Amino acid sequence: MSDQPSELVRAVEACLFAAEEPMTHQQIGAHLGDADVREALLQLQALYAGRGVVLVERGKHWQFQTAPDLAHLLRREKEQLRRLSRAATEVLAIIAYHEPVSRAEIEAIRGVQTSSGTLDVLMEAGWVRAAGRREVPGRPVIYATTPDFLSHFGLESRKDLPGLDELKAAGLLDPVDDTYEDMVAQKEEQLAAAEAQVEEGEEENSDAEDAAMLENRGESA
C-alpha cells in the first residue's frame, strides 16, 4: 500500500527504538550500511507527529520521547524542583553563549572567581561537559553544553537560545573591551601556577615519604 512507510523508514525506526541513547543521522546511517537517512528521519518524525510518542531532534541527535502534553500521566512521584545557585546560573549561561570556554574566560566575563564546585554541579546535572583543552600555555580545560542541556530546556540547538540579539547589542556576548584578552591570559597564568604549586606539593610529600621509609629501613637494619 502507498501509505505504508518505506523499508528505510522502518529500519530507521527500529534503529532508534533499540538505541540506548540519542543518535545523529550519521550514526544511524552507519548502522544501516552508510545510508542517507535524513529524509527518512523527517518522514518518521511526520509519521509520529500528534501521537503519544514523538520523534525529536536535540542538538543534532534524534530520539523518541513521550509527547510533552502527556508527560504528566507517567509521573509517579512528585517532582522536586532543584534551583541552581546564582553563580551556577551565570556560569551555565556563559558556557551556553560562549562555548567552548575555559574557567579563566568564565571568570573574566563574570568578574569574580568561579569555584570548581560550581562547574561540578553543572557537570553532575549533565548539562555541561569537558570539551578538551585550549592549546595555549597551561592547556586549560574548556567547557561546553551537552545534548541533555538542550533537551531539558526544549531547544533544538544553541541557535534557539533566547535573547541573542539583545545580549549582543548590550555587549554581553562578544566582549569588546581591549583588556579582555589580557584578563583571560592573566587568569590562565594564575590557574596554571596554582595547579603547578599543588603538583609540586604532592611531589614534595612523596619525596618526604620515600625518605622516611628509607630512614625506617635503616633503623630496622
From TrEMBL:
For the keyword Cell cycle, the answer is yes
Q: Which UniProt keywords apply?
A: Cell cycle, Cell division, Chromosome partition, Cytoplasm
Residue ranges of the region described as Disordered: 191-221
For bias type Acidic residues, the affected ranges are 197-212
Q: Name one Pfam family in it.
A: SMC_ScpB
GO terms in the biological process aspect are: cell division; chromosome separation
Gene3D superfamilies per the record? Winged helix-like DNA-binding domain superfamily/Winged helix DNA-binding domain
Record keyword Cytoplasm present: yes
Q: What is this protein called?
A: Chromosome segregation and condensation protein ScpB
